[in-house]
Amino acid sequence: MASFTLVDVAVVKGRETEFADRSKTNFLASRKEAGNLRFDVLQSRDDPAKFVLVEIYGSPDDVKAHKETVHYLEWREGVADMMATPRKGVQCTCHFPSEPSALLGFWNTEPCGWLPGAMDLTLETASSCSWHLSRCQLCKLGNKSIRYSPLPYIVAVFNCSLWVYYCVITMETTNQDLTPNGLINAAGALLEICYVLVFIRYSRERASVIYQALVAIGLFWTCILFFEVVLPLLPDWNKHWDFHWGGADVPLKSSLCGVVTDVLNVALYGSPLVVMGTVIRTRSVKYMPLPLSVFTCLQSLLWFVQGSLLGNVTVWLPNALGIILGAVQLIIYAMFCRSTPEARDVENSLTLSPSCVSTQPLAAASA
To answer: Which of 34, 148, 250, 264 has a beta carbon 3.0–4.6 Å from 246's, enabling a disulfide?
Structure first.
């Protein structure tokens, strides 16, 4: 994580020529680049690690191509709320959906039309770390998450945990070795729990996130209670219902659990396709990250091979569907990747409002 300290200085009035004069005393004017953005910076001559990010020019293509999208509008609204009640040490972050590289932050000294003018704010620290890992970014804006639902992550915790349970009960009653499946899904469950905790930490609707998490926990333990307590009390089911999902030697409990995990797994594999309408309408694939689609195909292919070697339909069937869903995502990406607006096409004259900018990426994976 890169960490930078913004020095305590008064707001510099005017444009670039005026703060170039100021830089002759304590600061050195320079221009830095971070991802698709360019920053005009006043860097301390005494301590190079301290600088004031003065103005930002250009922005990711989201702003030009989709100025009226809810992401941009909520970002403006959030910054306006922050500026309405300035306080020392205020930090906020900005949502740039298509920006996978690290951003620093900026200090804007020029009044904007939708704000009452540049305000005397002291931003004491700014840190950013952006790493595009997988299907979704969770960004915080003024200590709130922006229209990202925690539900996919909560469902992923449910799915991975149920896979661990399935592997344990199946290995207890059969000779199938599902140790890799269990270990990988255990790691995935821990990772997804971390993501849910991030949602809880930064969401203003914290109670709603906690409620959804508690519902998922309740559903998980309801399933466990059914498989471990209720199902054994129904001997006729085991006697008369010849249902062996996952292999001829797989008992009913494992078979039913496998069906539930398969449904959840297919839903998670196909989750990037929920933005297909947006991709087709905007002719832009920035909301459909390529790494996720590639690894969906690759992961599905590997698990499909493993499931086929084991002869376990619970493993190979959802991953066969995952290969198809991943291929559909890659086809859609290939169709619209060339029509996605480039960052260089963005108007360089656009100046945004004061804030510290950082993006916090999150990844969600299921085996």
So the answer is: 250
What is the token pair recorded at 36? 């698709």
Contact 154, 212 (CB under 8 A): yes
Instruction: Judge whether 364 and 152 are in contact, CB under 8 Å.
Output: yes
**pLDDT tens string 286-318:** 667 677 778 778 888 888 887 888 778 888 888
Type of residue numbered 58: G
pLDDT score at 188: 84
d(CA 195, CA 216): 15
Specify the pLDDT at position 46.
59
Report how far residue 261's alpha carbon sits from residue 155's, in angstroms, rounded to the nearest whole number.
11
Domain-embedded: residue 366: no
Q: Is the pLDDT of residue 155 over 50?
A: yes
Its domain, for residue 69, covers: 2-130
Return the higher-pLDDT residue of 181 and 2.
Answer: 181
Q: Which secondary structure element, helix H or strand E, spans residue 299, and what is its range?
A: helix 290-310
Within a domain: residue 18? yes
Q: Residue 211: CA atoms inside 13 Å, Cβ hemisphere, count?
A: 6
DSSP β-ladder status, 361-362 and 136-137: antiparallel
Tell me the C-alpha to C-alpha distance, in Å, between residue 35 and each of 111, 163, 232: 25, 38, 58
The tally of domains found in the chain comes to 2
| Amino acid residing at 94 | C
Position with higher pLDDT, 98 vs 202 = 202
- pLDDT at position 311 is 78
Angle at 360 between CA 358 and CA 362, to 5 degrees: 165
Same domain assignment for residues 181 and 101:
no
Contact (Cβ atoms closer than 8 angstroms) between residue 122 and residue 8: yes
Q: What percent of the chain has pLDDT over 70?
A: 46
- List the beta strands (DSSP E) in the chain: 2-5, 27-34, 37-44, 51-57, 125-128, 136-137, 361-362
